[in-house]
Amino acid sequence: MHITPDNTGLWGVKQTEEAAKKVTDLLQEDMEQHHVFFNKDHFHNHIPHHLLALYGTQCTSISLIQKAYDNNVNYQRSVLPRHNQDTKVFSSGNPWPSTAKKYLGKEEFYPDFLTFFQSEIDKNGIPEVLNSYLFGDWEEMMPRLFGGALHPLIQLMYGMEWNQPAIVAEALAQTAVHSDQMKEYLQSAESRQSQKGRMGRMVDLFNEVRSNEKVSTAARSSDNQKIYDGVLERAKEEMISLASRVKIGVDEIEERTAEMFETCVYVAAAAARYGRVKLGKADKFDFFLMHHVNSSPIFVTINAQEWITKETKARTLEWKVRMDLLQYAARGVPELGVDKLTGYQPKNAREGESIQDIISRLHEFPDDGHGIKLGRAAVVCRNFCKKYEDQGKDWVQIQGDDTWKKVCHLIVDSVEAPGDTWVRSGGFDEAWEVSCV
């Protein structure tokens, strides 16, 4: 790990030598001492994201960076031992993924995959390794990249955005040990791609998910896994049919990236107000929809890499949009509407503040990093999408500096509000009774 003061991610802020060294040391310690999952239920270690999100939003306080680490280190699991002999079959020179297939999806082989990908990157560099083992493997690795509430994608985002070979290796190893449960849905929607001509607005696809009676009612509050037990169990064909209409041409990648990003922020922010508007509860972002915002900046970074083909960029973005639609269905299709954002009254607005100033309040928020990651992503989105608002694009939902400030205030106000930090599956009234006061 090696972070420098001029390497601060998409916000492009200035940092200090002291903060850079602190983040470097803590990232190294985390990699050497902690496993990718902190429990047997495969809940993810978020320490790398948390540290870099703080650093990338100009948290220069050494004590706050250290505190963020200390608050989350005690429940981490120690690294697992490698299976030195067993996994030599997927060492360099052997065909991938056939020789590694029996180890994929198995948590206990994470340290072996990590060692393997570290070695491959050391020899060949990030571009060649990603093009070979990830973007070149749509049968095994790419479906796993979109598993686990997009956590492998998020890990890869921080590795690519900060150009850290060690974190990219962690992301590839994490991808390798995730389930491939999303494969059938993603591949089926792709193979049945039905859109004639250019795709319409993404927000209209979300509205169709909500208006489709079978899809919108497939998930139930009682389902343990609302994607697998709900949507893909009771409305698989209908969901695949909707997702098959996602189509992104190689000549529209940048604008469609902005549209995906802005639509994710709009959906998550509007959904966060559902409990207040309908039930009188505190505003809360949905835990799952939040991850679809937090992961979106990776597509800004992917688009900037000349070594990734346009076809790969478009295809990867299509898969992300299909996951966005599926997740919205699984969370109970909370009602949307721009008025929910324009009508929001921030709790602690200050004259002359920027959206960066608002989000910086989260530097002191004691969580596992989800809050500052959400705030960071919202600012990246505003900066990336503003030119399309200026051009009058009809897909833009969040318009004007004032509304963006309200969105950022909503993020901060919601995590600081009493009750759980997040609501889980916020389209169901029962979720708000459990999570919020």
TrEMBL record:
GO terms for molecular function: oxidoreductase activity. It comes from the Eukaryota. InterPro entries: Questin_oxidase-like. Keywords: Oxidoreductase. PANTHER family: PROTEIN, PUTATIVE (AFU_ORTHOLOGUE AFUA_5G03330)-RELATED. This is HypA protein. It comes from Podospora fimiseda.
